[in-house]
Design brief:
alpha+beta, 5-stranded mixed β-sheet, 4-stranded mixed β-sheet, globular, disordered N terminus
Length: about 375
């Protein structure tokens, strides 16, 4: 589900000239190019084709499909060079995004067109309705009611990290003497991925215009238990019983699963250890996966790691979704008359936890005292 670059504008690493549209006479300030192309960040990813011309890949406003067009915008990197950067970014995203990757892999996404044009997302929370009637003749009207709704706001920040190359470094790489060092791109993409993951776990929060982004351990409406038992490797039965209690909290709040169980790094030494001497070689992980509704058990690097935090989360759009205003990508612009090339890993990939209007959520958070 995670992508670091747009639709492929080439076949086998060679520009597909059959997909090239008309020349776009658009050159100037990077912001001007973004505005001209409706904030399509493909405008800031110019590449040099095999014919020496500059190209960009943008989305056609009329058809919604990506197309390759020639441009007068200065391009210094080849398509293959861009792909090297994108491959590095994508590799890091797969390594560092765990909770967010689970949300997106489950299809719990809301795609916001032109995320740059919005600072807040307005949405509604909703209560449940009364029960349906059962009878022999539907001529009798059931109770006619409507869910209680409330309007809420969700901020839409961007997440980014920058790195630079000089024109000389790029020219040297073109001669084949020394390829561009991708370590800066790798580190920058890791920082962006970690920020997304920390927002998702609640290790950091973000507030704007009175609205906030909360994570699974900071959501005010989550169910909580602060009296869980410290695992010792010999008390697995107690640990399982307390996680079952977390599941019951969610069931009571009408969140019936499926669930994913997330645990802090403190659990790593116990999770794959023997669950109980009574049950042979069965591990604590295997016992937890045997609980009805729990799809997976995952250690998260960015859960708080001082009180053996665990989070049981319902994988449903009524509980959580990823708001995608801009998928992770690398963009480029220049300064100092083109002598300095600036690159930015940028994204608007945000976790949105969605309690209902009664204050119930599909997140249960447990920790030791």
């Amino acid at each position: 589900m995670l992508t670091a670059f747009g639709d492929t504008p080439a076949r086998g690493g060679v520009l597909d000239v059959n997909n090239v549209g008309q020349v776009r006479e658009m050159f100037g300030d990077s912001a001007d190019r973004l505005i001209h192309y409706g904030f399509d960040f493909g405008a800031l990813r110019p590449f040099v084709g095999d014919d020496g011309k500059s190209y960009i890949t943008i989305r056609n406003k009329r058809t919604g499909k990506s197309e390759v067009v020639t441009t007068n915008a200065p391009a210094t990197l080849s398509y293959d060079s861009w792909k090297v950067f994108d491959d590095v970014v994508l590799k890091v995203l797969r390594q560092r995004l765990r909770a967010m990757a689970d949300i997106r892999a489950a299809g719990l996404e809301y795609n916001l067109p032109n995320g740059m044009a919005h600072t807040l997302l307005q949405y509604q929370t909703q209560s449940d309705m009364t029960d349906a009637m059962i009878g022999m003749d539907p001529v009798t009207r059931s109770e006619s009611d409507a869910p209680t709704t409330a309007t809420a706001l969700f901020p839409l920040p961007l997440i980014w990290k920058d790195f630079d190359f000089t024109l000389r470094e790029i020219q040297v790489s073109r001669q084949g003497n020394m390829p561009l060092d991708t370590s800066s791109a790798e580190t920058s993409s890791r920082k962006v991925a970690e920020a997304i993951e920390k927002l998702t776990t609640g290790l950091i929060t973000f507030a704007y215009a009175g609205a906030s982004i909360y994570g699974m351990t900071s959501l005010p409406q989550r169910s909580t238990s602060v009296t869980m038992t410290v695992p010792t490797g010999t008390n697995g039965v107690t640990n399982v019983s307390e996680i079952l209690a977390l599941r019951q909290m969610l069931i009571t709040n009408m969140h019936y699963g499926p669930y994913r169980l997330y645990m802090s790094t403190q659990w790593a030494q116990f999770l794959d250890n023997q669950y109980s001497t009574t049950y042979g070689d069965r591990t604590l992980r295997e016992r937890l996966l045997a609980i009805d509704g729990i799809q997976d058990v995952t250690i998260l690097d960015y859960l708080p790691n001082t009180k053996y935090d665990v989070v049981l989360m319902e994988m449903d759009t009524q509980t959580v979704r990823a708001v995608i205003g801009l998928d992770v990508m690398t963009i480029q612009w220049e300064s100092l008359g083109g002598m300095q090339k600036h690159f930015k890993i940028i994204a608007m990939v945000l976790p949105q936890f969605r309690p209902d209007s009664n204050g119930n959520s599909g997140v249960a958070h447990g920790r030791t005292p």
